[in-house]
């Protein structure tokens, strides 16, 4: 408003001077214009002309990413002693010759047989590949050895257990749903392929049997649930099934697992992928059919995109259906780039900018976009989207290594109010694995020798990041 007032005042004075005939007119004109000239120069350096980014708009260093990942690892692995305890007294059980009615695994993230722990363990195995730091994969060996050492005790006494779940091992004795075995089963296969501990195979094969033969499916073979609505399809179940099927295909060499993984993505996409949005709806059920309402919950699309990345990583280039999956991947990335918030985060409901900025989906998209660039599945021009996604994600890692700002476990719902008001917590373990994955993939992106990066200049009025493909600039 002040600039406008000054401008009109200057115009008025100039009009008066134009009518004024005086030998001192040039000097008066100079004096009149001088404060405005100073004001214009000042405008060039005022803070308003230099962007003030709420999250630092910087190029991260690989070492800084490693430091973040290490903090998470230390926090996560220290969450449980991985022992068997008496749940009534909290005392460790060391005598397994007799059955203890209240025996269960010790509490803590790192002792859970859960799908979220499965994502973490898969990420640990991946970080081992990327960085060579054996401290991460040591957690996989420790946990799965802990399970196979003590599971026979519970199996032997299954008839005496009068409850459906065994502490944080859940339904490990009798799988009921994909959540019970798929994600963590995939991590177990990855661990087996490196450790070759044959004791893992019983659980791996039982998981394969459940997913392939026992899990509820629609008539066309699409994996489904009878909750919360009759014959429901959840986007979450892409990650609860496809990574296991993909890795089972690698383990056995049997293409039936690849075929089923491709089928799940394409058939779930037929019901959940909305072309106009280029996103996955959280869920669908047979009763509402074509008129099912759409809710674009961030983590649902995150699960879908991560599942596709897992399958694309192992599926042969010419495998039937791979091109269709790649198209889904690319269109989702395009849409997500447009929906990214100015902070680098994504919203809990992707198309609702008044929902909160959420950690787990931001990490999932950061990982998937960086992965797509590194593998050549998507254009390198998306590099700044991944970079700013990581810059945002790492702000949610607390000093002690806890990951904050993650949406709590979320059912397939049918109203915006529910999604808008989901809680956020460091105890929502859905965020840990994706953040670990995102960091690992960002290290790969920073070290990608096929790319040149023009970096944004700090304190600049107009400067951004440009990821360039070296092969395109041979003649430069």
Label this structure with key terms.
mainly alpha; 15 helices; globular; about 475 residues; 12 strands; disordered N terminus; two-stranded antiparallel ribbon
Strand order of the largest sheet: 1-2
Oligomer category: single chain
Per DSSP, the total helix count is 15
Mean model confidence by pLDDT: 92
Q: What would you call the structural class?
A: mainly alpha
Distance between termini?
47 Å
**Contiguous runs where pLDDT drops below 50 for at least 5 residues:** 1-12
Question: How are helices and strands ordered from N to C?
Answer: HHHEEHHHHEHHEEEHHEEHHEHEHEE
Q: Beta-sheet strand percentage? A: 5-15%
Largest sheet: 2 strands, antiparallel
**Could you give the count of β-strands?**
12
Query: Could you tell me the radius of gyration in angstroms?
Result: 28 Å
Relative helix content = 40-55%
Shape: globular
């Amino acid at each position: 408003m002040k600039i406008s007032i000054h401008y009109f005042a200057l115009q008025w004075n100039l009009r008066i001077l134009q009518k004024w005939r005086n030998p001192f007119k040039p000097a008066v004109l100079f004096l009149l214009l001088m404060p405005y000239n100073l004001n214009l120069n000042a405008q060039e350096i005022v803070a308003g002309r230099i962007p003030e980014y709420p999250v630092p708009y910087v190029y991260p260093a690989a070492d800084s990413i490693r430091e973040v990942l290490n903090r998470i690892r230390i926090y996560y692995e220290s969450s449980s002693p991985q022992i068997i305890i008496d749940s009534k007294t909290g005392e460790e059980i060391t005598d397994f010759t007799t059955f203890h009615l209240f025996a269960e695994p010790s509490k803590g993230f790192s002792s859970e047989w859960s799908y979220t722990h499965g994502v973490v363990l898969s990420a640990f195995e991946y970080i081992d590949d990327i960085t060579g730091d054996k401290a991460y994969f040591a957690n996989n060996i420790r946990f799965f050895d802990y399970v196979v050492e003590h599971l026979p005790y519970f199996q032997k006494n299954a008839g005496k257990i009068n409850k459906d779940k065994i502490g944080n091992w859940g339904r490990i004795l009798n799988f009921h749903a994909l959540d019970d075995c798929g994600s963590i089963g995939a991590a177990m296969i990855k661990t087996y392929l490196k450790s070759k501990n044959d004791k893992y195979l019983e659980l791996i094969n039982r998981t394969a049997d459940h997913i392939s033969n026992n899990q509820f499916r629609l008539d066309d073979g699409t994996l489904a649930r009878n909750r919360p609505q009759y014959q429901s399809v959840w986007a979450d179940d892409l990650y609860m099934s496809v990574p296991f099927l993909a890795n089972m295909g690698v383990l056995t060499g049997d293409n039936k697992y690849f075929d089923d993984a491709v089928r799940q993505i394409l058939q779930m996409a037929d019901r959940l992928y909305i072309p106009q949005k280029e996103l996955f709806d959280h869920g669908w059920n047979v009763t509402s059919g074509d008129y099912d309402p759409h809710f674009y919950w961030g983590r649902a699309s995150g699960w879908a995109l991560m599942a596709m990345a897992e399958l694309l990583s192992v599926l042969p280039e010419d495998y039937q259906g791979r091109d269709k999956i790649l198209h889904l991947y690319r269109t989702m990335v395009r849409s997500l780039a447009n929906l990214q918030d100015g902070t680098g985060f994504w919203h809990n409901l992707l198309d609702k900018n008044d929902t909160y900025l959420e950690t787990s989906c931001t990490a999932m998209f950061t990982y998937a976009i960086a992965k797509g660039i590194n593998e050549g599945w998507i254009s390198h021009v998306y590099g700044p989207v991944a970079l700013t996604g990581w810059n945002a994600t790492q702000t949610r890692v607390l000093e002690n290594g806890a990951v904050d700002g993650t949406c709590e476990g979320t059912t397939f719902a049918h109203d915006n109010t529910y999604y808008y008001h989901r809680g956020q917590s460091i105890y929502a373990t859905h965020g840990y694995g994706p953040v670990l994955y995102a960091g690992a993939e960002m290290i790969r992106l920073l070290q990608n020798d096929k790319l040149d990066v023009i970096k944004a200049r700090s304190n600049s009025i107009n400067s951004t990041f440009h990821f360039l493909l070296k092969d395109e600039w041979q003649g430069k």
